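Support request from a user on the community tier.

User writes: "When I paste my structure tokens into the form, the page sometimes reloads and wipes my input. The last time it worked, I copied everything first. Here is what I submitted, just in case something in the input itself triggers the reload:"
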């Protein structure tokens, strides 16, 4: 089973794109705090992508600083670095569901808005 649940803050304004197949895609970065081995607080950043309706809802209603809960799966993207030739990896969370936790704005989505793709 490949499943991840995160609660954190959006680190930058969501970015909307269209895939080569014409599908709407929205990318966000979620910051999640934890204590490191020395007991100091540190923030881990998770790159996330939402497709379809979920991506459209995020793009329309979510902003930098909003607290969001997400459920999704982890995908590993691999490529060869053009400069060094070394294999590189990037872990991305593919968002399946979202939950708005808090926002300082008034333009939050209506309660009947679908939050799943």
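"...and here is what came back when it finally went through:"
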């Amino acid at each position: 089973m490949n499943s991840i649940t995160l609660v954190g803050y959006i680190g930058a304004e969501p970015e909307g794109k269209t895939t080569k197949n014409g599908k709407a895609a929205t990318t966000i970065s979620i910051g999640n705090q934890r204590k490191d081995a020395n007991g100091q607080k540190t923030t881990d950043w998770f790159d996330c992508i939402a497709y379809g309706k979920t991506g459209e809802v995020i793009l329309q209603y979510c902003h930098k600083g909003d607290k969001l809960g997400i459920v999704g799966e982890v995908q590993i993207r691999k490529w060869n670095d053009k400069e060094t030739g070394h294999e590189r990896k990037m872990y991305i969370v593919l968002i399946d569901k979202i939950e708005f936790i808090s926002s300082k704005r008034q333009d939050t989505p209506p309660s009947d808005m679908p939050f799943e793709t």
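Agent notes: The reload is a front-end session timeout and is unrelated to the input. DSSP finds one helix and six strands in the chain. The domain at 4-102 is CATH 2.40.50.140 (OB fold (Dihydrolipoamide Acetyltransferase, E2P)). Escalated to web team.
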